[in-house]
Amino acid sequence: MSTLATTTSRIFPAFTSLWEDLMNKDLLEWDGDLGLTNPSVNVKETDKDFNIELAAPGMKKEDFKIELKNNVLTISSEQKEEREEKSEGKYLRREFSYKAFQRSFALPENSEKDSIKATYTDGILKINLAKKYVEPVITAKKIQVK
Prior knowledge:
The chain is of the alpha+beta class.
């Protein structure tokens, strides 16, 4: 059985996690977590701004890292957890958990990079980028007829 679990974990890590959860946890204890940590994102554009909504329930605002570098907005998070159950000095079960994600967005030229705002409410991280007016560049060239 351990050979199958090792081979499967390299090819299908989410399946192994689900299998181990089903086999090792009590049904009332199972939280439905499949180890899939890439949150869903909605991106919306209005006349005045751009809005990004990232679904991340169960997190705290301190869990997010938001950076702007080279016109790319990156949202990331990393969570580590250790749980341990003991019975008279022997381990009955010891579990480690690690969850991380990173989502990146190339910002359009007409976004106001100095006025990015982020809020986290009811499991949704909302990022607002105001639009700025960009003067359209119109180049005209006369072509001489010979």
